[in-house]
């Protein structure tokens, strides 16, 4: 969703390449976002006279992106706290073993 917000005029092929997924998966994901009403597709003409789409986040799409970002950040912060705790425990354990070895 962030990629669409930053590059609304990307083609599905470009989106596919930037996300590192197949063109079919990109099409499937865009259709799902369109059906949820989080993205709308707008036609526009290019200089070579072919029609393309601009994928624009709707207000609901922006709200959902913010909600997903918050959830992702909360999950990563929780993982960070757990890792810090594990690192602290391992350092203590190592220090104890080094003290016993002396």
Summarize, please.
Strand 1 and strand 2 form a beta hairpin. The protein has a single domain, classed as Winged helix-like DNA-binding domain superfamily/Winged helix DNA-binding domain (Arc Repressor Mutant, subunit A, Orthogonal Bundle). It is an alpha+beta fold.
Structure overview:
This protein starts with a helix and ends with a helix. It has four helices and two strands. The longest helix is centred in the C-terminal third of the chain and has 43 residues, at 59-101. With 102 residues, it is of the alpha+beta class. 69% of the residues lie in helices and 14% in strands. It has one domain (2-101): Winged helix-like DNA-binding domain superfamily/Winged helix DNA-binding domain (Arc Repressor Mutant, subunit A, Orthogonal Bundle), CATH 1.10.10.
- SS field, number of helical segments: 4
* Distance between the first and last residues' Cα: 57 Å
How confident overall, as mean pLDDT? Answer: 88
- The CATH architecture assignment turns out to be Orthogonal Bundle
* Range of helix content: 55-70%
Strand order of the largest sheet: 1-2
């Amino acid at each position: 969703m962030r990629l669409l917000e930053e590059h609304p005029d990307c083609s599905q092929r470009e989106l596919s390449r930037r996300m590192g997924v197949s063109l079919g998966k990109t099409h499937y994901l865009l259709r799902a976002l369109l059906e949820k009403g989080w993205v709308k597709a707008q036609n526009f003409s290019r200089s070579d006279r072919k029609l393309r789409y601009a994928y624009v986040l709707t207000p609901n799409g922006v709200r959902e992106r913010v909600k997903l970002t918050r959830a992702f950040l909360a999950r990563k912060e929780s993982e960070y706290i757990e890792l810090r705790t594990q690192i602290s425990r391992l350092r203590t354990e190592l220090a104890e073993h080094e003290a016993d070895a002396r």
